[in-house]
């Protein structure tokens, strides 16, 4: 049976907002919750001990908890945080760069994150040999690319697919949000906190183009595979990941759960989801087409 996972919060939310959000998620129908700051180490409304405390509450609520590591490591202080996450002693770790893999390899089971760029069977087998127990498919991969990997999956290895949220497309050493306000990265005044779902960019024709989230660039459209649950199931996918947004995450989770339990039709679920966002949906990558295209319509 497929499980539902909630990815780490990718934005800079106030402390109370984060704590209240995870209180709500403890009562939700997700099976797995990823915690931690993956985008920028300057975001410090929750420290590592705070994340661990949140994890303990989620464990008490029956969730599996995974600590996610930062994608782009640039300083010794960030390396120290990485080591502390690896040595947390409580929760499995999602490795989002090879530095984290090196610290975990042969010592602890871990999740191989999407940003490790795993695109073929040999790479999956490589990470499995180092101790990975689950891998997260790169968002730009298609079902056609996944199927041959699934046919040769190492024993005990699970597959997780990103099924809802803005797609993390790229990371940079520069902070785009700070730059938009003519501020240097090291004195950004935490302007990310002004954009709880990222800073939207539009073309000159006023079409939604991208979303800037600090050093991360995201898709403007919401990637949504609610109409692909049957194909995900037939492909042998074990875990479906939903990426948190500042509003309606609980409703999206429940709609996925209802469709997985076959108490709601995907077309009906998509109609309800379309009322929750004005940004539009896409599913092109899974279909092997341009990422911003949408095949499944209500």
TrEMBL record:
Q: Tell me the leader sequence span.
A: none
Q: Which InterPro entries match?
A: Peptidase_U32, RNA/ubiquinone_mod_enzymes, UbiV
| Pfam families named in the record | Peptidase_U32
Biological process (GO) annotations held by this record are: ubiquinone biosynthetic process
Q: This chain belongs to which protein, by name?
A: Putative Peptidase U32
Q: Identify the species of origin.
A: mine drainage metagenome
| Taxonomic lineage | unclassified sequences, metagenomes, ecological metagenomes
């Amino acid at each position: 049976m497929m499980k539902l996972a909630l990815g780490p919060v990718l934005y800079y939310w106030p402390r109370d907002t984060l704590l209240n959000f995870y209180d709500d998620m403890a009562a939700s129908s997700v099976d797995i919750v990823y915690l931690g700051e993956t985008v920028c180490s300057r975001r410090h409304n929750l420290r590592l001990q705070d994340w661990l405390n949140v994890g303990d509450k989620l464990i008490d609520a029956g969730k599996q908890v995974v600590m996610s590591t930062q994608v782009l490591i640039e300083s010794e202080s960030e390396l120290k945080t990485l080591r502390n996450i690896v040595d947390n002693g409580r929760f499995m770790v999602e490795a989002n760069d090879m530095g984290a893999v090196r610290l975990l390899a042969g010592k602890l089971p871990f999740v191989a994150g999407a940003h490790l760029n795993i695109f073929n069977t040999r790479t999956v087998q490589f990470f499995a040999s180092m101790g990975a127990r689950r891998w997260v498919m790169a968002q730009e991969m298609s079902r056609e690319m996944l199927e041959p990997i699934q046919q040769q999956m190492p024993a005990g290895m699970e597959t997780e697919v990103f099924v809802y949220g803005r797609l993390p497309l790229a990371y940079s050493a520069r902070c785009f949000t700070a730059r938009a306000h003519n501020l240097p990265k090291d004195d950004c005044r935490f302007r990310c906190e002004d954009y709880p779902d990222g800073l939207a960019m539009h073309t000159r024709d006023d079409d939604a183009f991208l979303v800037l989230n600090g050093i991360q660039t995201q898709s403007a459209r919401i990637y949504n595979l609610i109409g692909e649950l049957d194909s995900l199931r037939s492909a042998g996918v074990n875990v479906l990941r939903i990426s948190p947004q500042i509003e309606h995450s609980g409703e999206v989770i429940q709609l996925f759960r209802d469709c997985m339990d076959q108490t709601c039709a995907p077309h009906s679920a998509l109609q309800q989801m379309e009322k929750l966002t004005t940004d539009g949906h896409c599913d092109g990558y899974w279909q092997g087409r341009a990422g911003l295209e949408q095949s499944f319509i209500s």
